[in-house]
Amino acid sequence: MIYKFADNRNYQDYSSGRVLYNLPGTTSFPVRLASEIYQRCAAVLSAGGVNAPYSLYDPCCGGAYLLTCIGFLHGREISGIYASDIDRKMVSLAEKNLSLLTREGLQKRIEQIEGMYAAYGKESHLEALKSALRLKDVLDSMDGDIDIRCFTADITRARGLTDYINNVNMVITDLPYGNIVSWSGQPDEKQAVQGLLENILPVLSSGSLVSVVSNKRTKIDCERYRRIEMFTAGKRKITILQPVYRE
Ligand SMILES: C[S@@+](CC[C@H](N)C(=O)[O-])C[C@H]1O[C@@H](n2cnc3c(N)ncnc32)[C@H](O)[C@@H]1O
């Protein structure tokens, strides 16, 4: 694929398990691709007259690796980051990762890594500490705080999302596929995707965009959306949709 926006630079500060927390069995996501998806959506939104700051939601957030990276890379344009997952353990991990976008959360992580370096003196801890301090500089360069919300929800059945969030400008979600994670709650993939796309509609603001990352064979369409863009990156397919509101 040809990247239109995201630089080909070193993203090692965002490596999973370095400063960002991880757990066995969790997935990460190519950081440059995450940034590219965000920026393509932002470009379409702003061309349509919807300007930053944007609110962002991932309804299959896992440990919120994707959202946390986007938060650091584009936080200056982001007012809210919302994360939900069917798995409570994942939501706890998402809370920890998204806490890194707050001064207190990042400071706590810096102290934890300092403690590990003092105890074990490992080169990897020193590198993690350098990364954490660079992320602190990134955070210090942002103006306001990001509104962060995490909650548990089976997005294939979820009703009442508006109790938690509203006015979302952008959904970016990496669907369960492959060997590590699969759909829970709805074994039929087609219905799971339909359910997700239908259930998020009430929390979307007008002109919003929904970016779905899937494997190449999964069909991402729904009569309540029109397709804006589709592209592939390695084994992944990225489909950007926009809700269609009928009178
Ligand atoms: C590919 S992972 C997402 C990883 C995430 N993008 C990240 O950066 O950490 C897919 C996630 O979908 C979640 N999931 C599976 N079935 C779900 C459902 N019915 N509703 C909500 N989340 C679900 C899994 O628990 C898993 O965490």
Topology:
Layout: H1 31-47, E1 54-58, H2 65-74, E2 78-85, H3 88-99, H4 103-120, H5 123-140, E3 147-152, E4 168-174, H6 189-200, E5 204-215, E6 225-233, E7 236-243
The chain binds S-adenosylmethionine (SAM).
S-adenosylmethionine binds next to helix 2.
Short descriptors:
Rossmann fold, 7-stranded mixed beta sheet, binds S-adenosylmethionine, globular, alpha/beta, 247 residues
Describe the structure.
Helix 1 crosses helix 2 and helix 4 (103-120) packs antiparallel against helix 5. Strand 6 and strand 7 (236-243) form a beta hairpin. The protein contains six helices and seven strands, in the order αβαβαααββαβββ. It starts with 30 loop residues before the first helix and ends with a strand. It is an alpha/beta fold and 247 residues long. The longest helix is centred in the middle third of the chain and has 18 residues, at 103-120. The protein has a single domain (27-102, 145-243), classed as Rossmann fold (3-Layer(aba) Sandwich), CATH 3.40.50.150. The chain binds S-adenosylmethionine (SAM). S-adenosylmethionine binds at residues 26-27, 29, 59-66, 85-87, 90, 154-156, 174, 176, 181, 183-186.
